[in-house]
Write a structure and sequence with these properties.
Helix content: 55-70%
Largest sheet: none
Strand content: under 5%
Oligomer: single chain
Structural class: mainly alpha
Length: about 90
Amino acid sequence: MMKVTIWGYFNALFWNYIVPFLEWLGPELTPFAVAFVFSLIAIVPSWRLFRRVGKSARWSLIAFLPLGFFIVAWILALTAWPREKPN
């Protein structure tokens, strides 16, 4: 019996679904689709971090801008974080 690994699953997912979709989009829209997916991936952790810091989570929408996640990282780096409460 063949052992299925996580890499094998994602490899099959990539070649069977994602590549045909990108070919369907065409060479004009493929870079925008890839950038959009990476922006969505960047929004989730920044959304949680902004909530943890006490700022509005809407700041994480900057990640949709080109190089926006670097702006988000700078905002989070220069923000005063609340201290954790001891148990």
